[in-house]
Design goal:
alpha+beta; two-stranded antiparallel ribbon; 20% helix; 21% strand
Length: 225
């Protein structure tokens, strides 16, 4: 490209020289060589087009899973004795979940009229089992402060009967603190208690067995597509 521009400049210079006045005062034209009359080749510009790929995002698929529930026997106070009430929990519930269910009841319905709870709500009660048939119930500090003295043995009986009636393989309960026995006597922490210890606190109409299977409303699980 530069060579051709230089050649063109040379042509112009020759043209200027060729048009100069010579000795006789006449102007003579000089034709440039044929190869200098060639035109420069045209310049072609290439246009580049960039296209963007379109991304489509799909929504979420929703699957419905049915969760089976198990009936549980929850003990509440009625006229100074314990009466069972059938509730339900999802399969493979923990002891702490069972106790929490006990604390939250009984629900207000015609079936639960006359029943009340001696265990206060809003206090954290945990329970574990060691695999040897013994479950440990951990009561928080000050657990009995808000429970009337006449209800303290009933509250402990509620816990003992509810845990033992719904936990296969567990036949004894120990508490982390001193508790009230069935007759109001003091039971030291760590002493093993059984269902038989509190049979005297059961109402006569305790022949209720949880034979009805309840199905909880289906749970919805969201799975990314």
């Amino acid at each position: 490209m530069r060579a051709r521009v230089a050649a063109l400049c040379g042509v112009l210079l020759i043209a200027v020289t060729a048009c100069s006045v010579i000795d006789d005062g006449k102007v003579q034209s000089v034709n440039p060589p044929d190869e200098l009359t060639d035109t420069l080749p045209p310049t072609t510009l290439e246009l580049t087009t960039t296209s963007l790929a379109e991304t489509t995002t799909t929504g979420l698929e929703t699957t419905t899973t049915e969760v089976q529930a198990e009936p549980v026997k929850l003990y509440y106070i009625s006229s100074g004795l314990l009466s069972p009430l059938i509730g339900s929990l999802s399969s493979q519930y923990s002891l702490s979940q069972l106790i929490f269910q006990l604390q939250e009841g009984p629900l207000d319905s015609p079936v639960t009229r006359g029943l009340r709870n001696g265990i206060p709500k809003g206090v954290e009660i945990s329970a574990t089992q060691d695999g040897t048939g013994v479950a440990t119930i951990v009561l928080p500090e000050g657990f009995f402060d808000t429970i009337p003295a006449s209800d303290q043995r009933l509250a402990i009986a509620q816990l003992v009967m509810t845990v033992l009636d719904n936990t296969p393989g567990v036949g004894q309960i120990v508490f982390n603190v001193q508790v009230s026995g069935p007759g109001g006597e003091l039971i030291p922490a760590g002493q093993k208690l059984t269902r038989a210890d509190y049979l005297s606190l059961l109402a006569s109409s305790t022949g209720v067995s949880p034979t009805t299977t309840t199905t909880l409303p289906p749970e919805t699980t969201t799975i990314p597509a």
